[in-house]
């Protein structure tokens, strides 16, 4: 099984790439594709398409395009759910200690990482970021 996982601009800016990747690898997952990139506004809008009609959509697009991200394909058993658990709750205030967001994130809109929330999302997001 595989999923899409990304270190967002705040995580890159705060030099958390090694820490986040280490947590993924220590958990036993394999990173099979990885790249640092700047997300174009068009890709950001497609990536966050399900939020297009929400008031925070523009802020999401502006944030995710504000600096480099590290996009990854991560493989392993039950990887979608396991990576979601490793990330912690979307709001760092609700994230458990020991999770990436619980330990490293400080704000809801700057929560360090993104991971696919289903097998279908994983396939869609991997195609968006790694189709060649």
| Gyration radius from CA atoms, angstroms | 14 Å
Instruction: Using the 3D structure, state the CATH architecture.
Output: 2-Layer Sandwich
Proportion of beta-strand residues: 15-25%
Classification by helices and strands? alpha+beta
Write a structural description.
The chain is an alpha+beta fold. The chain has a single domain (2-130), classed as Alpha-Beta Plaits (2-Layer Sandwich), CATH 3.30.70.141. Helix content is 42%, strand content 18%. It has a four-stranded antiparallel β-sheet with strand order 2-3-1-4. The longest helix is centred in the last third of the chain and has 12 residues, at 119-130. The protein is globular. The two termini are 20 Å apart. The mean pLDDT is 96.
Topology:
Layout: E1 2-7, H1 9-13, H2 17-26, E2 30-37, H3 41-47, H4 57-64, E3 69-75, H5 79-87, H6 100-104, E4 113-115, H7 119-130
Antiparallel strand pairs: 1-3, 1-4, 2-3
Please summarize what this structure is.
By secondary structure, this protein is α+β, with helices and mostly antiparallel strands. It has helices at 9-13, 17-26, 41-47, 57-64, 79-87, 100-104, 119-130; strands spanning 2-7, 30-37, 69-75, 113-115. A 4-stranded antiparallel sheet has the order 2-3-1-4.
């Amino acid at each position: 099984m595989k999923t899409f996982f990304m270190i967002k601009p705040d995580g890159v800016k705060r030099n958390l790439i090694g820490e986040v990747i280490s947590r993924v690898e220590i958990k036993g997952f394999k990173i099979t594709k990885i790249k640092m990139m700047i997300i174009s506004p068009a890709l950001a809008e497609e990536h966050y398409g399900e939020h297009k009609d929400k008031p925070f959509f523009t802020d999401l697009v502006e944030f995710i395009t504000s600096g480099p991200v590290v996009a990854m394909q991560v493989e392993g058993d039950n990887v979608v759910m396991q990576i979601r658990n490793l990330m912690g709750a979307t709001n760092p205030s609700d994230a458990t200690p020991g999770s990436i967001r619980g330990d490293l994130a400080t704000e809801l809109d700057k929560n360090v990482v993104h991971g696919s929330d289903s097998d279908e999302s994983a396939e869609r997001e991997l195609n968006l970021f790694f189709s060649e």
